């Protein structure tokens, strides 16, 4: 795993098999507000995305699913054909008094996936594995767009960021996909691609890890 520097204004992200990159803090944030809030993010296989965000303090629930297509074809068999328009995604329910939307975005870009991979992540290829943010409010859309622009100007990667901002409903995936990494900790895919992401998150953001 690549080295991670703590305590500076930059945090180094580490994706399994990828070179570490510096990630600046988000310049603006969504108003904290009251009550639980929801974020929907896509960044490759939802198993790993879910595994990372389940570790974040203030996150109450993470659901794997599909976003960007219709309810009729929101199932694994159909989505896997790469013709439905869905992305594998996660729905995060979080307490804004504990963790903010901007902090979730920083984890998303720093350790959860590689935002420079177009229609793929690691060994998985196709538009269902694209990097995409599905804002749930106008404020989320504003913050996500600003952060993508901020990262681009910072030159955090030596390749363009391909993360898209999209609209569309979220549909939960089949039961056997929920909490897959937690239920299958020695699955070869989990060991190779997802455990390193979880470890990178814990190293880079120790103050955000659930106790």
Automatic annotation (TrEMBL):
Residue ranges annotated for the Peptide methionine sulphoxide reductase MsrA domain, each copy included: 38-189
Superkingdom of source: Bacteria
Active site: 45
A Pfam match: PMSR
An example molecular function term from Gene Ontology annotations: L-methionine:thioredoxin-disulfide S-oxidoreductase activity
Documented EC number(s): 1.8.4.11
InterPro entries on file: Met_Sox_Rdtase_MsrA_dom (IPR002569), Met_Sox_Rdtase_MsrA_sf (IPR036509)
Record's keyword terms, sorted: Oxidoreductase
Catalyses which reaction(s): L-methionyl-[protein] + [thioredoxin]-disulfide + H2O = L-methionyl-(S)-S-oxide-[protein] + [thioredoxin]-dithiol; [thioredoxin]-disulfide + L-methionine + H2O = L-methionine (S)-S-oxide + [thioredoxin]-dithiol
Stated family: Belongs to the MsrA Met sulfoxide reductase family.
UniProt-listed NCBIfam families: msrA
Free-text function comment from the UniProt entry: Has an important function as a repair enzyme for proteins that have been inactivated by oxidation. Catalyzes the reversible oxidation-reduction of methionine sulfoxide in proteins to methionine.
Name of the featured protein: Peptide methionine sulfoxide reductase MsrA
Organism: Sphingomonas gilva
């Amino acid at each position: 795993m690549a080295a991670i520097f703590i305590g500076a204004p930059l945090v180094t992200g580490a994706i399994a098999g990828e070179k570490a990159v510096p990630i600046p803090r988000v310049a603006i944030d969504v108003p904290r507000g009251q009550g639980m809030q929801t974020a929907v993010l896509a960044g490759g296989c939802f198993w790993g995305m879910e595994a990372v965000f389940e570790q974040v303090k203030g996150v109450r629930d993470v659901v794997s699913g599909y976003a960007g297509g219709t309810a009729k074809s929101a199932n694994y068999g159909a989505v896997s054909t790469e013709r439905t328009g869905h992305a594998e995604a996660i729905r995060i329910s979080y307490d804004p008094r504990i963790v903010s939307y901007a902090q979730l975005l920083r984890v998303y870009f720093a350790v959860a996936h590689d935002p420079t991979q177009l229609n793929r992540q690691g060994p998985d290829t196709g538009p269902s594995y694209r990097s995409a943010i599905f804002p749930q409010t106008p404020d989320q859309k504003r913050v996500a767009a600003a952060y993508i622009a901020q990262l681009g100007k910072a030159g955090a990667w030596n390749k363009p960021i391909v993360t898209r901002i999209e609209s569309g409903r979220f549909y939960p995936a089949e039961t056997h996909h929920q909490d897959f990494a937690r239920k299958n900790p020695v699955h070869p895919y989990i060991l190779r691609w997802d455990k390193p992401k979880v470890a990178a998150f814990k190293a880079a953001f120790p103050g955000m890890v659930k106790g």
